[in-house]
Amino acid sequence: MKAFYDDSTIESIRSEYIRLGESHLKTICNLRTLEFQLKEDLAKEYLTHGLLRRFLTLKRCIDNIFRLFPVENTSPLEIDELTDVSVNLHAFFINISGLLDNIAWVIIHENTCSINRNSVGLFYEKSQKLFPPSFSEYLYTEGISNWHCEHEKLFRDSLAHRIPVFIPSNGINERDRAEYLKLSKEKDDLGQNPPKNPLSIISTPAEYDNANKDVDNWINQIDEIDRSMKQFERPAPYFTHSIVDDKDWRFLHPQLVNDFNTVVNIIDTFINCVSEKGETIPDEDI
Question: What is the pTM of this model?
Answer without folding.
Answer: 0.80
